[in-house]
Amino acid sequence: MNLTQFLNFEIGRSCDLAREHKSFCPSIDRDRYGTLSIEKILKDELIIESIKYAINLGFKGFIGFHYYNEPTLFFDRIMRIVTAVENIYDTPRFCLWTNGTYLDENLDNLKHFERIVISNYQKKDWSYIEKFMKKNGELQIMGGELDQRKYNFDIDDEVAPCFRPLVELIIDYYGNGHMCCMDWKGEINLGNIQIEGFKYIVDKFLQVRDQLLLSPISEESPLLCKQCKMKLKFIPMNDKTFYPKTNKYVDILRRNEEHKNQKRILNENIISKSTIL
Hints:
alpha/beta; TIM Barrel; 4-stranded mixed beta sheet; 3-stranded parallel beta sheet; globular
């Protein structure tokens, strides 16, 4: 978890721009959760326990409350969780990723966030937000363009590596784990923290992540990843402090895999020669 830059909990299901963006965003798609469990809403207590577990595992990234929702619609709930975590840890890092619609109604609470990211669909000047943020916090304005993620999976057996799992681990509104934001149906089954627990999801997430960091990706990688045409082809720079250790980890991972393959080929050659003799 020490290489993961965001741990996101979908704090609510609704988004005020969902209908406006429905052709591109899966927020209200009828197949939004695929075959995932949506029986029970994730409780605050389990979110807090999961954050504690992640931090104890070495997680130093941002804790976020977004996925395909608008988090500022649920600001009271966000602040309950933020306050609880701040009472346990001295310097937790929170990120608010928002479309900005209701940001002005919550200015007094922005001081809790080290990073605020605004998807600027309104094409507005948000510079005034900085004075309400945490000291030395960062305001990032995104262009607000929508991509084709709803129609993303049509490549046959793409073997290029993907660095997207270094960006985020996502837990949706009902507790289901998602490998990344492209896996919005949860087709890569990581489990549900209300059923298997957060540790189970983390272990499975890290296993698949390492498969996708190889070049080419592991043959055991999920089919969905092999069909994805929106792979992240570079180490993400959401936090520059992650880059050196991430680059080193990927290099070691790939060299170990190369060594393992060489050893396998050598053993196969030995067996082949002994069979001939």
